[in-house]
Amino acid sequence: MDTVTLSKQNRLFWLGRYAERVYTTTQYMMKQYDHLIDGGTVDYGTFCQKMGIPCVYDSGDDFCRRYLFDSLSPYSVRSSVEAMLGNGMVLRETITSPTLAYLQMAHTAMELAAHSEAPGVELQWVLDDIMAFRGSFDDSVEVETARNITKAGGMVERISLMLRLDWQLERLDRELQKLMNRLYKTDLTPEKDALDVITRRAVGGEDIDRVLLLNSVEGLFRV
Amino acid sequence: MNDLIRHAQQINQQLARYGVKFGIYKNGEFHERLFPFDAIPRVITAREWDSLEKGLIQRVNALNLFLKDVYGEKRIIADGVVPEDFVYRSPGYLPQCEGIVPVKGVYSHISGIDLVKGKDGVWYILEDNLRIPSGASYPLIARELCRRCSPDTFRHNGVLDNRNYGQLLRRTMDSVNTGGINVVFTPGRYNAAYFEHSYLAEQAGAVLAEAGDLYVRDSVLYYRSTQGDQRVGAVYRRVSDEYMDPLTFEASSLIGIPNLMAAYRAGNVAVLNAFGNGVADDKGIYYFVPKMIRYYLKEEPILCNAPTYLPFYEEDRKYVLDHMDTLVIKDVAEAGGYGVVFGSKLTCEQLSDLRNTILAQPRRFIAQEAIDFQDLPIMEGEEQVERKADLRAFVLSGADETVVWPSGLTRFSRNPDSFIVNSSQGGGFKDTWILSR
Amino acid sequence: MRRDLHFYCDILLEFGAPVTGHAFALRCMPPSFPGQEILDVTLDLDPQVPYARQRDGFGNLLQIGRVEGPHDHFRYTARGTARLDMSCRREEPCHPVFRFPSAYTAISPEMEDHLRGLRLPADPADRAWALAQAVRARMTYAPGETGVATTAAQAYASGRGVCQDFAHVYLALARQAGLAARYANGLPEGEGASHAWCEVWLDGCWTGIDPTRGRWTDEGYIRFGVGRDFGDCPIERGVFLGLTDQRQKVFMRVSEQ
Q1: Secondary structure (3-state) at B2
Q2: In chain B, which residues have their Cβ closer than 8 Å to the Cβ of A12?
Q3: Do C237 and B99 touch (CB under 8 A)?
Q4: In B, which residues are within 8 Å of C100 by CB distance?
Q5: A16 Cβ partners below 8 Å, 6+ apart?
Q6: Looking at chain B, which terminus has fewer C-beta neighbours within 10 angstroms, N or C?
Q7: Over chain C, what HEC string results?
Q8: Phi (first) and psi of residue B70, to 5 degrees
Q9: Could you list the pLDDT tens digit for every one of the 437 residues in chain B?
Q10: Domains (ranges, CATH) in chain B?
């Protein structure tokens, strides 16, 4: 069925963003967990500032636990998993039941992780399930524009997190170019000013202020 | 069968993997629950099914003719077979539908007929659901998963494949489609049966839509898509009549489609099921269904009703008042397992209150003999126990034919003392096998 | 007595802020039937949008359409000429639903008591008349105290209301007293707002009776719609997107040519 409503556009885009957010922040937090094992510290104050979320944590351990698993906080990774599944659930007949099942599995794994003493194993399942989701999504979503909207959402989220967290910045230019390529294969209309800024960096190689670049990526689509 | 029971845990894991859930509201909050599944199937032999199938088709055909008659010529009332009180006082009767003939004259496209099997081996009809009967998706997906977990079971037992429900639904929709896409219309994610809405849309190859996705222009229903508006030819709606069109019915509804009634009236869209079907699945009208079969089809009913009394008739009223302590009394205005009272469980005071209510409003109640159901085995931990169960059969009526899905939803009560198997009251479900021999 | 009456019905809805996706269903064009012949009629909509004409389940004329883009008002103006002649009325069948209570006209125990105390005449026409007088005796005309959602039982309990409430109370009592009766609305001769009255099925003919004014209707009443109660035949219903307040200005006039 090659039809996508405007409300579905929104869900597809945010499905991509949340799946990517869960994937990247889970990876990031697994690294922080590992760091704590050797008695290292976590600069969660700076993390919260960069992410633009309230800092309500009182230790590195508390941060690792609650940023991941606090179901009452809208900023936790667990809440992002809820939002990811919620967007997937309303897209069943577009993304197919087998694809949706991987989101359901990631959700189940996250619930198990939240109740685990050593959540690393279950968090790895979350990552596995999201990878499987991506593969299944690619394979089973027939409508190309639908596929590209979700992918564009994922790219926006990934670049946003890279810029916020200084995470894998060496891959930034490659990701920006991928986003530019994807842009025209969606039905989405990009904001002109934001697109200009991104083009200057991705195509012209210009050195752009990081905050301006971040705002441009975040504001590229009004979905 | 033992192999299936051994794999019960795996099957339940698979059901969780696919998010097979239903929603309930508790203290005003929405929760989703897994629908408990019991691995031991209900088994119906080919011979038994043959008569059930014929009886169900006969019943649904008669009910469709009744709906056409009630909103048209009203012969059955004029001929004194159904008293007008049971039509015009029914909350399901919608005079707004007078004179409208739905596309191809089909009113109840998807009918859910609830039956129980008595200890005497006889199947009894419990009630007809001609508005938006739900539940087909659960046995549909459960079968897929049972086959995956225990292939041997299905290699050896000759179970008719039930995974064609999506195609049957699609064929039904296509047969009444007026030229446009097929849509499943849902009130949204927070509806108890959202899983089913989205799963059936996928299985039938239809588009799942909510209120904002559809609108009526020039008496035609359209779906807003990014490629422009698309005409809708058939809408399988999972929203009840009163909320479907705020300009015709409940004005405050936010989940409906304004002026859908105009598109429907003009014959520009098929609505599955039609508006106003509630007049035919009322607990009061149930009593008259065997009479309808004789009246419209000139045939003897193949399936029987549970023995039912209408306090509306003086003779029945006397019997009901004399036998209240053994009868099941149902309030015709209630649904979903509510408003059902077992006389044997009432105190003297409650009996006397009920007696007075029946005397004051005889039309509001029906009374039935409590059927001695055959219990079905379920697994409770490692132990096998017997529980009450019913069967909802799904009957699909398109423009040219009426077919019965070779399966059904078997619901059971987990509470050993309860006769009520409704999922909103904590029951579970089983697969229903129809054997090829 | 044959009369040709010119009617003019102008209703303006004003929105505090622009609204969109405005779907409407109007019943503002009177139909022709024996006793009322519409010689000519036009309907103007502003914003000007096309509308479809249909008949609802009660036989009323419907005008259905949609204003898609932002608009801060919606105005509909119906005008035309009606030829009224009570002597042209014909016998017609009565739909049984008009003998049963409806959403707005369910009877309350105190109304039943009242009815029992009335000692109504056996002749249906006399009974219909006696009931209208009983409603007039019980109810006081009091604008602004009831709303569109007020039921017959509520209006009866307060003893106050407008024409819609008088009609609902009348219908509840009349149906309980064994008469087939229905709600009617439209324009009476003169200037002002629309009016609601009732029709009772007497000797096979729908006969108008106005419980608010305590009289049978005559060639001064142009009928727009009928139904079980107000809910079946409102002159205008609409839904739109936008959070705003809404004001309504109504002007109607019926006069001899």
Answers
A1: helix
A2: none
A3: no
A4: 88-89
A5: A149, A150, A151, A152, A153, A154, A155, A156, A157
A6: C
A7: CCEEEEEEEEEEEEEEEEEEEEEEEECCCCCCECCEEEEEEEEEEECCCCEEEEECCCCCEEEEEEECCCEEEEEEEEEEEEEECHHHCCCCCCCHHHHCCCCCCCCCHHHHHHHHCCCCCCCHHHHHHHHHHHHHHHCEECCCCCCCCCCHHHHHHHCEECHHHHHHHHHHHHHHCCCCEEEEEEEECEEECCEEEEEEEECCEEEEEECCCCEECCCCEEEEEEECCHHHCCCEEEEEECCCCEEEEEEEEEEEC
A8: -60, -40
A9: 788 999 988 998 889 888 887 777 777 777 777 788 999 999 999 999 999 999 999 999 999 999 999 999 999 999 999 999 999 989 899 999 998 999 999 999 999 999 999 999 999 999 999 999 999 999 999 999 999 999 999 998 999 999 999 999 999 999 999 999 999 999 998 888 999 999 999 999 999 999 989 999 999 999 998 778 999 999 999 999 999 999 999 888 888 999 999 999 999 999 999 999 999 998 899 999 999 999 999 999 999 999 999 999 999 999 999 999 899 999 887 765 677 888 888 898 998 999 999 999 898 899 999 888 899 999 988 899 999 999 999 999 999 999 999 999 999 988 877 666 665 566 899 999 999 98
A10: 2-300+395-434 (no CATH), 307-369 (3.30.1490.270)
What are residue B412's phi and psi, to 5 degrees?
Answer: -130, 160
C-alpha distance from B71 to closest chain C C-alpha (Å)? 10
Dist CA A12 CA C37 (whole Å)? 57
What's the ipTM? 0.92
pLDDT digits (tens, 9 = 90+) for C180-220: 999 999 999 999 889 999 999 999 999 999 999 999 999 99
Which residue of B lies nearest to A106 if distances are taken between CA atoms? B17
Q: What is the DSSP letter of B249?
A: S
Contacts of B201 in chain A (CB under 8 A): 92-93
Instruction: Tell me which residue in A92, A105, A145 faces B199 most closely, judged by beta carbons.
Output: A92
**C66/B259 touch (CB, cutoff 8 Å), yes or no:** yes
pTM for the full predicted model: 0.90
Q: What residue ranges define each of the domains in chain C, with the CATH number in brackets?
A: 3-86+235-256 (2.60.40.2250), 91-232 (3.10.620.30)
Q: Where are the domains of chain A?
A: 6-172
Residues comprising chain A, all counted: 223
Q: How far apart are CA C73 and CA C9, in angstroms?
A: 17
Residue pLDDT tens, chain C, 257 long? 899 999 999 999 999 999 999 999 999 999 999 999 999 999 999 999 999 999 999 999 999 999 999 999 999 999 999 999 999 999 999 999 999 999 999 999 999 999 999 989 999 999 999 999 999 999 999 999 999 899 999 999 999 999 999 999 999 999 999 999 999 999 999 998 899 999 999 999 999 999 999 999 999 999 999 999 999 999 999 999 988 889 999 999 999 87
DSSP codes of every residue in chain A: -----HHHHHHHHHHHHHHHHHHHHHHHHHHHHHHHHTT----HHHHHHHHT------SHHHHHHHHHH-TT-TTSHHHHHHHHHHHHHTTHHHH-HHHHHHHHHHHHHHHHHHT-SSTHHHHHHHHHHHHHHHHHHHHH---HHHHHHHHHHHHHHHHHHHHHHT-SGGGHHHHHHHHHHHHTTSSPPBPHHHHHHHHHHHTT-----HHHHHHHHHTSB--
Amino acid at B8: A
Give which of B247, B249, B264, B269 to mutate to test C binding, by max C Cβ within 10 Å: B247
The reply to whether residue B208 touches residue A93, judged by beta carbons under 8 angstroms, is yes
- Report CB contact under 8 Å: A3, B227: yes
